[in-house]
Design brief:
homodimer; 221 residues; mainly alpha; Arc Repressor Mutant, subunit A; three-stranded antiparallel sheet; 53% helix; DNA-binding; Metal_resp_DNA-bind_regulator (chains A, B); Helix-turn-helix transcriptional regulator (chains A, B); coiled coil (chains A, B)
Chain lengths: 221, 221
DNA sequence: TTCGTCATGTAATGGGTTACATGATTAC
DNA sequence: GTAATCATGTAACCCATTACATGACGAA
């Protein structure tokens, strides 16, 4: 009855925080912006939206006034339902953003969490990145152990598969290392541009994490 | 009622083809040998085993005679149920092995299929590898297109996530390229060691695929 | 006029996990 | 004696997909 997905809920709230949208568009964003990792179907999305409305996190709005005169025939196409984040929804999302349990760095969640790092405070970002890294290192240790145990009994293909899998994990660890270092560099950056400083950038606009070049003007249509 | 998992069924049949096992051990193998990608719980495994028995692919056997005298007290531990592949099961698995639809190269299936390449005929291996590769290239094209469309609207983190995701896919494509070339080299290898040839190596022992990349004493710590 | 895309939804189904129940054996 | 591991199983639940139902609009 309740359809509390966790990950889908999180992503929907996060996307709607940037700007109101209707379901169809929301799904597209879900499967492009964030969707390298996960693809959701309408069968999941629409029920999810309903429960979010029931929770009070979202409100449904009729189609916004179109500037295009052709579409003025009372809601172009089938009457869109635009979903907007409520104040309570915003608060709820902010709370979700601040959580740093294992739920934040397991495979299914990490990607989506990362996608909203722009809205996440720096210390939470650090905890999530480090959590993910240690999770992966744990996994590497297990893989190495199991490989050492069974090395001789495996055929070439199984071995190659294992090797490639381990390399993938190692690669992600290196990636995380760079990101973490980058975050640290950003944090310790107080010598120059001191006027940019702010005690907590949780709700503020997305600031670049150090090495990444600053963006001129980001505009979310 | 039926619990036809596809992927789990496949893996179970494949592991039992190598040697009979009881459920507990089977699960461990599932989560080490093949399990970098997927971890199954007893809640899936045992019901699956039951239906496989009902299908006639497996038979339950009482614990095998233990050579260890201490365990001779009528089935060491709780009476193990050893599962053995029947002739029909073997036939069925062979048929599954020969299938090369999209089911073979999608994310969820490819790893397990690859793990049993040792039992797979060369032409099927080729089709699966090439299928996977074109699937990934398709995905890359989509990612690049979507990136080109939305490049400016994305914040640094989302961009970085996307970039890393694409790199991962590109890396797998390169891996597949090497494997495919290796397979081809193996196929065209008729100048030397001609007595090793066999028209179909489907059911035969695992032959190394020519220039198998994995080096013996390769240890990347 | 038919196809592709936009747009919203529901019911049935699938494939899996978690938590629980049970109990023997081994190692400390 | 008690904790860990071995060993098998079930029921309740979860999250998501697929297939379906409906329908409007724009372009070929």
């Amino acid at each position: 009855m309740s359809r509390r997905s966790g990950i889908l809920e999180f992503a929907v709230l996060g996307l709607l925080r940037e700007s109101p949208m209707h379901g169809y568009e929301l799904r597209k964003r879900l499967n492009t912006s964030l969707g390298v990792f996960r693809a959701f179907s309408y069968g999941s999305l629409y029920p999810c939206l309903k429960t979010l409305v029931q929770q009070g996190w979202l409100i449904e709005e009729p189609a916004p006034p179109q500037e295009d005169p052709r579409a003025a025939t009372l809601a172009g196409r089938r009457a869109k339902i635009v979903y907007r984040l409520t104040a309570e929804g915003k608060e709820h999302f902010e709370e979700l953003l601040s959580q740093t349990g294992p739920d934040a760095w397991e495979d299914e969640h990490f990607g989506v969490r990362f996608a909203f790092f722009g809205q996440t405070s720096r210390d939470v970002r650090m905890r999530v990145l480090e959590g993910r890294r240690s999770r992966l290192e744990e996994r590497l240790a297990k893989m190495r152990a199991s490989l050492a145990r069974t090395r001789e009994r495996l055929d070439d293909y199984t071995l190659e598969l294992q090797r490639h899998g381990m390399e993938s994990v190692e690669r992600e660890v290196r990636w995380l290392n760079e990101l973490i270092e980058s975050e640290r560099a950003g944090r310790d950056q107080r010598a120059d541009a001191p006027d940019e400083r702010q005690s907590e950038d949780t709700g503020g606009g997305p600031r670049h994490p150090g090495t990444t070049p600053p963006d001129p003007s980001d505009d979310t249509t």
